[in-house]
Structures are given as structure tokens and as C-alpha cells.
Amino acid sequence: MTLAATDTPLVASHDAVLLDLDGVVYRGGEAVPGAVEALREVREARLAFLTNNANRPPEAVAEHLAQLGLTPSVEDIVTSAQAIAGVMSHDLAAGAVVLAIGGDGLREALRARGLVPTGDRHAAGLAAVVQGYTPDLGWRDLAEAAYAVQSGLPWYASNTDLTIPTAEGIAPGNGALVHAVRLATGQEPVVAGKPYAPLFEETMERLAPASPLMVGDRLDTDILGARRAGITSLFVLTGVNTLADVVNAVADVHPDFVGADLAALHDAHPAVVIADRVAHCGSARVELRDRTLTVVTEGTSTETLRAIVGLGWACRAESDVHLSVNETIDA
């Protein structure tokens, strides 16, 4: 696979921009530098915010974004809690009682779909167990989930991200907690969050865009999910995965476009020309030297990143060896 190209600003080719939140728009409570400014410059495309984090209800997410300087409506926020609640409402009878291991966002999403969340594993008529992220979750919660799953109840999970980016670094995500229950039970949950289909299906149903663009910082969720859904993707370097991760990624998680941050929405993305293990993109020149992709001449950040990634993918297609990167992009 090669990178897609456009000689006009990337956002001009799309009527909706679907944005991951953690690691793309903000880290913890703080905005990613430049993210708010870049999103304010989007004029024609609708912005939607897709998050695998099931902890907060959409109203709280919208309020957080408003505090950062954005103006989303609640309908612009799509959470994995909403997506898994939608899946469960199709599987379970209306009014079914569900053991909910997670935050307010998960419980509110279940109620909105006609389900009854409880924290009591012994509640009468318990029909299923669902697991979502909350920073307050402890061992007892995981044990209760495991006991419920072992009893034969169907098990659902909002998402399986192993990590979550925060203002202080990378922390364990819901996937790490789900894995603890998996180890205890030997069972697999039904999952709604990226890269699985339900979160994208929920978003497409709300927006009905003709040409959506997914923006994410994780290859295994944002980019893989977009590829499975047939949605064009932009990878940004402000969250979990690194440039070396992208260069060495398998084809299934190759993004269509790469950028240092959300400012890449407003950049042209010139074609990458490769010959004799040298790549040119705009003013950027990158060479392969002893398994290291080396920037010889910088262009714009987007041009330089594209030259690095384009050359890396081309070289790995010839010989599947791990490549390192010697570059000076600030991201």
C-alpha cells in the first residue's frame, strides 16, 4: 500500500471529519497543542468525535470540549458506551437488568437504550454483564465481572484499548482490565469500540456522510477500524503510536495519510516519488542508510513525514526488516 495524495488541503475532500479524542484532541484534561486551532479552521466539513473511552456521558465530553474552545453538540459525540448499549439492546429484552462495570457514561448509555444497569451481581433477573473504563475501577469490580461471566451470562465490553494516553503519560486502558477478566474466565466479550464495527455504524447512521475522514493516533483501533469500515484515515503523531510504529506496521493498519498533528488537515499531501531507496515529497528528501530512514532535506512537516513513511513501506515490501528513523520532526 502507498500513501494517498492530494494537491489541495486534505479536509477539502471530505464532508465529515471523525476524530478520536484521547491523544488526538486532548490528553487528559488538556488540549493537544494546536488541536483546537486546527479544528476551528475547519469550515465546510462536519466534526464528529468518536471515543473508545466509555467513562463519561456525551454531555460531559461536549462540556470538556467547550472548555477547550470548541463548540460541539451532544449529537457530535459518539462513545463506545453508546455503541455497546446499542448492540446489547438488540440482543437483550427491553428492561433487561445488566451488571455494569464502568462509569456514568456506560450506565447512562444503557438506560437510554431501555436497559437497567446495576452494580449488584445478585440482582434478580440479571441478564448480562458489560465492562467499560473508569479510573475508579478496582479489583472487586473485576472479580464481580469474572464471577458473572463464569456463571454463564453473556459478556460485553465497550472497547479493548490496552492503553490510554493521559497528560502524565501512557496508562492502562480498558483492554487491560478486560484482559484480566478474560484470563480469569477463558471467555471473550462482544466488543463495540474501534476497531470493531458498532462504533463506526453508530456514527454513519447519525451523520450519513458521503466522504468521511477518520483521524486517530492508534493504528490498532482508529486506523484498523477505519480500514475495515472503508473510511479514509489520517494518522497523527500526538498520541500512542510513533512514527517508527507506522513505518514498520503491517499493511492492515496502514493509514491513507500521515501528519504531525491536526494541522495536517489543512495541508496538501503531495505524492511520494521513490527511486533507488530515495524518496522525494515536495521539498523533502529521505534516504535509506543501513536500515535507517534518514532525512537529508526537510520539507514541511507533512512532506517530510510522507517521504519517511512512503520510503519505509516501499523498502519493507521488498524486505520485511525492522527500520529505524532518523528525523527531526517535532511531534
Automatic annotation (TrEMBL):
TM segment ranges: none
A cellular component term, taken from the record's GO annotations: cytoplasm
Source species, domain of life: Bacteria
Molecular function as annotated in GO: phosphatase activity
Protein name: Haloacid Dehalogenase Superfamily Class (Subfamily) IIA
Source organism of the structure: Aeromicrobium choanae
